[in-house]
Amino acid sequence: MTYRYKVALIFLIGFFIDCINIFMSAVALPSISAALHVSTSDVAWVANAYILGLTLIIPVSTWLAGRFGSREILTASMIVFTASVWMCGLANSFNELVIWRFVQGIGGGLLIPVGQALTFNLFKGEQRAKISTLVMAVALIAPAISPTIGGVIVDSSSWRWVFYSNIPFSLIAALLSWFWINEARPTSLPSPDIKGLLLVSAALGSLLMGMSLYGGDSPALVAAFFVMAGVTFVVLYGLHYRTCKNPIIELSLLKS
């Protein structure tokens, strides 16, 4: 197997793990709700916490890869993912489960942009179209099979095995990343956009909180407050973007 296909395989494994964790855990929510004695609206944070960790880490992941190395970041992301899914399975309280799901999202979120950047840099022209087809296939297949797999696991054992079942795949991805990835670090890196990162994180967190509260039992005014706060942080980031030399999110790419 050539080097570029090794990199692509690592990315596709990690991408598949991320996709199934978004959808497969949803099947276990009723069992988690009953076991940990939480309401059906509150238990949605098992999924929300994962998505929040996933989205918050993505903007800074490429800078981390440049600072510490792609091999190190990809390996660390899968090790963090492995440890957090193990702790999710051991969780004895709902708050503990939500915290570890957030950490799990951070581990998964590190792999997606770094792995995708490495993969698409190695595939040009028609080859890039072919690898894009594989990525789309994973994006379609994972959501399709996740509910069935999750249902079988919950019915045959316990909701905890929905998390434990990820461990072999994440460990394989970690080992392959360490032994197969060979990318040189850039000689110089711009300073990270800390202010932009804080604004983006606040915007995403506020919007997710607002939409989650709106779908639950909370007063509509509380949900509206968080949504407005998220919109405010988006506007503040837009103003910050105009004066920042190295913004954490390049808004000009939206013109493409």
Spell out the blueprint of helices and strands.
Elements: H1 3-27, H2 29-36, H3 45-68, H4 70-90, H5 94-122, H6 126-156, H7 160-164, H8 167-180, H9 194-214, H10 220-243
Helix pairs in contact: 1-3, 1-5, 1-6, 1-8, 3-4, 3-5, 3-9, 4-5, 4-8, 9-10
Task: Report the span from N to C terminus.
Answer: 34 Å
Strand content: under 5%
The description of the largest β-sheet is:
none
> Class of the largest domain in CATH?
Mainly Alpha
Mean pLDDT: 88
Helix content: over 70%
Question: In CATH, what is the homologous superfamily of the largest domain?
Answer: MFS general substrate transporter like domains
Order of helices and strands: HHHHHHHHHH
CATH fold category name of the largest domain: Growth Hormone, Chain: A
Per CATH, which architecture of the largest domain? Up-down Bundle
Weakly predicted, low-confidence segments? none
Tally of strands: 0
Number of domains: 2
